[in-house]
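thought: fold this chain, then report.
action: predict
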Amino acid sequence: MHDVSILGLKVTSATLDEIHQAISRIVASGGPGFVLSANVHGFNLARENPWLADFYNQADLVHVDGSGILLAGKILGRKIEGGRLTWADWAWPLADYLAKEGHRLFLLGGPEGLAAEAAEKLVRHAPGLNVVGAHHGYFAKEGPENDRMVDLLNQAAPDVLWVGLGMPLQERWILDNHHRLNAKVYMVCGAAFRHMAGWLKRSPEIFIRLHSEWLWLLFQNPSRGLRRYLYGNPAFLYHVVLEKLGWVPGRSSGGG
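observation:
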C-alpha cells in the first residue's frame, strides 16, 4: 500500500484487504483516523477549498471512488492498485469485514429513516455486524443541536463512523467535531446510504463497464448532476492534462 499524487492530492493505492487491515490498525491504535473518497467532484471542490485539499493530504486513506481518478492516474503514469472502490459495491464486503473483526459501527446522514434502513439491510447481509446507532443528517451543524449529536455519538462509542452528509459538508463536519468525539475511524460516504437501503438503484451494468456511471446518475438527478458532471468532469480532465504537460498550480512550468 502506498500513496500517489493526482493534482497534488493524495490517493491511496491499495487492495481491498490492505484497506480493511489499515482500518483495523487505526481502531487498535485508538485513532482518530480518516478515510476519504477520491472522486472528480471531491477533487474539484478541493481545488476551490484549500482546507479540503489539506484534509485529503492529511487523511490516513483516500480510496478511489470514481473512474475519473483511475483515468487521471493512467494519463499521469501513476499506477493505482486495487482499482475503483465505490461505496455502492464496497459497503457489503466492508460490513462483512467489520462484523468479522467485531468493530462497532454508527451510520450518520441522510433524511429521517434512511440510515436506520441502511443499517437494517447491512445487518441482514452481515448478521454479526454490531451497529451501535443510526441517525439522520438533518441537524444543525453547530450550537446546542450539534452538541446533542456529539453526546449521542459519544454514548454509542463507535469504532467506525460512516458520515454521509454530502460533499464538502461531511468533511467539514468531521474536521470541526472529531476532537470532541470518541470514534476511532471516520469514513465519508456521501449518498451511499441510499444505495444500501435500496432507495437509489445502481446503474445498469453497461454503464459500469464503460466507466460511465456518472451518466446514469445524471439521468437520475439532472439538477444535481449538470454542474457536477457536465462541467466538473471536463474541468477535472483539463487540469490533469495541464499537470501532464508540466504545469503545477502556484509554480512556474517554464525554465526561465
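thought: worth noting. The beta strands are 2-6, 9-13, 33-38, 61-64, 104-109, 130-135, 160-164, 185-188.
final: C-alpha cells above.
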